[in-house]
Amino acid sequence: MSLLTLSDVSAFYGASQALFDVSLSLAEGEVMALMGRNGMGKTTTIKVICRMLPIAGGDLRFDGHDLRPLPSHRAARLGIGLVPEGRRCFPNLTVRENLFATARPGEWEMERVTGLFPRLEERRNQSAATLSGGEQQMLAIARALMTNPRLLILDEATEGLAPLVRQEIWDAIRQLKLQSGMAILIVDKSLRELGTIADRAVILQRGSTVWSGHFGDLDETVTNAYVGV
Ligand code: ATP
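# adenosine-5'-triphosphate complex -> structure
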């Protein structure tokens, strides 16, 4: 059964329409790459899923629940964990406080997330503001995991990071796929890295779904036309 379903979803910023009939469906445990060039609607789609932007039309369901009337904290409580673009940790809280601020009971607790990101254990009593960009990204992922989501959404989690740190983040995401049954919706610019974890892909062009299918079926014609690599 599908865990997350968007059917013909439309959304606006004020009078300006940003999404036109976006459809996608993600099963439990599946990894989906949400792709498209800059400004094509990836983050907007994520905002709609997380109920941070009103939905103007279409249907939006998570585990059978109608998400449309729900505020963002209720969507989170149903099991949608977001790692937002730009990380957004609480800068004045320590690493530990950041992790517990939104934690919910489940298999992902302090020991398990610091097993995935040992650096967070070393920095547990430091304020988030003193962390490097890569460490802040690890914290943002760890914090989302500690909400024990059934769906983890990663929006440009490796953006702007040095190559070695980027590798650490990708290794952690690959471990997540192997060791947890979590569904993952991921936006990232690296086709090569996405190819190591994504089961399926959806491509957006000017706010519309223009391609969806198995990641392995993406060919150069499609990526050249819509992803621009
Ligand atoms: P990027 O990789 O650059 O983040 P994206 O695919 O995530 O791109 P979105 O951020 O979803 O794209 O933007 C989709 C469209 O909505 C763009 O035309 C963008 O200019 C517009 N948009 C995004 N945020 C706002 C906003 N707060 N107010 C008005 N328009 C916005």
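# post-check
Residues 13, 16, 18, 36, 38-44 surround adenosine-5'-triphosphate (CB under 6 Å).
The chain is about 35% helix and 30% strand.
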